[in-house]
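Hi there, hope your week has been kind to you so far. Would you mind checking whether the tokens look sensible for this chain? I owe you a coffee for this, so here goes:
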Amino acid sequence: MYLMKDITRDGNPVLRKRAAKVSFPLSDEDQKLAKDMMKYLEVSQDPELCEKYKLRAGVGLAAPQVGVSKQMAAVLVPAPDEDKKPLFKDVIINPVIVSESVQYGALTEGEGCLSVDKDIPGYIPRHDRITLRYQDVNGETHKVRLKHYPAIVCQHEIDHLHGVLFYDHINKDQPFEAPADTVMIS
């Protein structure tokens, strides 16, 4: 399992590179990468384990964030009700957004990132709804429609695979300005 010391921090060039496509079947190394990234998210979302291992809670972790420039990210968006299954949970490999809404969505609290240690305030307008095509760890292709928070999380992780960090999207002059019809998600 990864710890915070394993997370690549802002300033490392790997975070600004376009990641390489992943080939199938996955190598043992890539299978371990996928498993370890998801394990980090699972453990980080358990308050006791998060504190025990001194982790920062996360809902997504892309391979470049652990120093591996490959198109792979683990995503675990929990349901608002703890007893329900997650809103989205999978390791997305070679992801492509095949369609997106005209309407934007943004988190009222702004976004954070395990690779960025400082708080960078501002809205990050992203497409409120997307259709995502990706492969899972078995090489099976999935096409899913996501909206609101899960869509935002997946776009954030896909940005990592393209060398983009969340704060690149913040309007430098008006950080808390979003397009007029933006869905604000709390």
